[in-house]
Amino acid sequence: MSYLCSKGHQVTLPHGSMNASAWCRTCKRQAREARWRMNPFFAGVYNGGPCYHIDATSRLERVARFNTDQCQRALRVDGLQKTVRTAIERRLRKIKEAA
Ligand SMILES: [Zn+2]
């Protein structure tokens, strides 16, 4: 017997359980991925785990296309290189000037 969660995904419930949303794997995966994506250097999912750009060169390429929100989240990333931080601050100024 299959049920639908609140987002309409098909869920097979364990015996005796009534709440489809609590058991929806798709929703759980999407929520997890949304958390990973909060890091603006998120690169993709590999083997079920998050992958992030960690080297300065890749990060600098990304920063060039960041919006204000992404810049601000990027500034809170752990282990941010000094060159990357400087580029983000420059990017923020540039966006502000363009607005
Ligand atoms: Zn769902």
Description:
This protein has 99 residues and is α+β, with helices and mostly antiparallel strands. The protein has two domains: 1-32, no CATH class; 38-99, no CATH class. It has helices at 20-23, 25-37, 56-63, 68-74, 82-98; strands at residues 2-4, 10-12, 42-46, 49-52. It has a two-stranded antiparallel sheet with strand order 1-2. Strands 3-4 form a two-stranded antiparallel ribbon. Helix 3 runs parallel beside helix 5. The mean pLDDT is 94. The protein binds zinc ion (ZN). Zinc ion is lined by residues 5, 7, 9, 24, 26-27.
Strand percentage lies at 15-25%
Overall average residue pLDDT = 94
Number of helices: 5
> Any idea what the shape is?
elongated
Helix content: 40-55%
In sequence order, what are the helices and strands, one letter per element?
EEHHEEHHH
- What is the CA-CA span between the terminal residues? 55 Å
Low-confidence regions: none
Taken together, the total number of domains comes to 2
